[in-house]
Amino acid sequence: MILSIEQLNVSTKEKQLVHNVSLSVRKGEWFALVGQSGSGKSVLSQAIGQMLPANLKANGTIQFMDQNMLTLDRKQMKDIRGKRISYIFQDYHGSFTPFRTIAQHFQEYQKAHGISNKETRKKNAIEALESVGLDASFYKRYAFQLSGGQLQRVSIALALMLSPELVIADEITTALDSVSSHKILQLLAQKQKDTGCAILFITHDWRHVRRYADRLAVMKDGQIIETGGKHRILDHPRHEYTRQLIKAAPILSSGLRSGLEEEKKHEPTFS
């Protein structure tokens, strides 16, 4: 396993947000964490990288490879976060400073992880942009000059540039239209195939789960209520809440297999 979470709890002084969560992500797999807004998915993802707000406390075990993430100090986390574990966020606009160019973001990101030569950093950045379908001209642009889909591609380029072993993608298509969403996820799937990274994919959209996930866990009120292979859960959900979620997704309830084949006929091509 690349990531193993055991009996994780996250709470404020007044309220517990994550309750005794245990799950594992295998090397190279696409693992989906599914649940409605407020179920605790994002809090769980933030706990993995020690990115929780100061008023939230986590206890339990988060084992990434051979290290318990909750026991690492700030310097140790800096060495891991961004390099071995990378995040792609829903709020891609918030990931970029408006008065800095894309070039400056790439330069600072690499410099923070020990790449000292400026020309090497530029070469790496342009190659990363080109790998997500953006030409070298995007290197000197500002974030506000890019569309939502383009900016999310830049986020993916940044997240994967240093070849992390685990990518945590938190609701990354929520702010995009359906065509852009499909293209972004096709791109991420291709990058996963190229690099062999594992993906922890946080979503409430069962269409994306059906198309991309290998395994999944369903979260409700801060607890994991069901976990297993994609086809087993989609075809034979065991928990009533899971059945309700699937039934509420029209594209799923009318037939999983036939629906997938129909979507593939109209799938946009990434370019």
UniProtKB/TrEMBL annotation:
| Localization, UniProt | Cell membrane
Classify the main location: membrane
Q: How does it sit in the membrane?
A: Peripheral membrane protein
What keywords appear on the UniProt entry?
ATP-binding, Cell inner membrane, Cell membrane, Membrane, Nucleotide-binding, Translocase, Transport
- Pfam families (UniProt xref): ABC_tran (PF00005)
Recorded GO CC terms: plasma membrane
Q: Where is the ABC transporter domain?
A: 3-246
A single GO molecular-function term is:
ATP hydrolysis activity
Could you tell me the superkingdom of the organism this chain comes from? Bacteria
Classification via Gene3D superfamilies: P-loop containing nucleotide triphosphate hydrolases
What family is reported?
A: Belongs to the ABC transporter superfamily.
Q: What is this protein called?
A: ABC transporter ATP-binding protein
Question: What organism is listed for this UniProt entry?
Answer: Bacillus mesophilum
Q: What is the lineage of its organism?
A: Bacteria, Bacillati, Bacillota, Bacilli, Bacillales
